[in-house]
Each structure stands twice: as structure tokens, then as C-alpha cells.
Design brief:
Radius of gyration: 20 Å
Structural class: mainly alpha
Number of helices: 4
Order of helices and strands: HHHH
Length: 93
């Protein structure tokens, strides 16, 4: 029994997906140094892995990454990674 061929629509979706990825990559690479410097200033300094943050500090950091994501200063992947890291630090008594 022969395998079913890939449909034209699937090929179109794959091509569109690759074109979108290439456009995102180009946009990321074309950022000017001024944009990356201001972006770095807005991000809160990451704390050392062994240090404890108070609940208020953790919430402030979560609010900050939400604000940066909504302002499109960080990508969704960065947002999710930072949020997961902060949520893992929350201690439940």
C-alpha cells in the first residue's frame, strides 16, 4: 500500500511557516544597538540563583515581565521562561 502524498495546502502552510520564521529571524538580527541597550535597561537584574526573594519582590518581577511582554520588548518564549523561573521560586508554606 502506497503512502499518501502531502497535500498542496500542507506544503503552503509549511512554506508560510518557514517564511514567517525567516522574517522573525531577520527582524531579530536587524535590531539596532540603541534598541538592545534600552531593552537591557528596562529588564530587572536577575538575582543570583542561591538568593531568596521576598513575595513582594517576586510579584514585582512578574508584573515587570508582563509589562515588557505587553510592550513587545521580550518574546513569548522569554516571557514564559522567566515566568516559569519566578513561579518555581515561590515557596508555599
Amino acid at each position: 500500500m502506497a503512502a499518501q502524498r502531502t497535500s498542496f495546502e500542507k506544503l503552503q502552510r509549511d512554506r508560510a511557516k518557514k517564511a514567517k520564521q525567516a522574517a522573525k529571524r531577520e527582524k531579530r538580527l536587524d535590531k539596532s544597538p540603541e534598541e538592545t541597550e534600552t531593552e537591557g535597561e528596562e529588564l530587572m537584574a536577575p538575582s543570583e540563583p542561591g538568593t531568596e526573594l521576598s513575595a513582594g519582590e517576586l510579584l514585582a518581577r512578574v508584573e515587570e515581565i508582563h509589562r515588557l511582554f505587553e510592550a513587545k520588548k521580550i518574546t513569548f518564549e522569554d516571557f514564559e521562561e522567566q515566568k516559569a523561573d519566578l513561579m518555581a521560586r515561590i515557596s508555599v508554606d
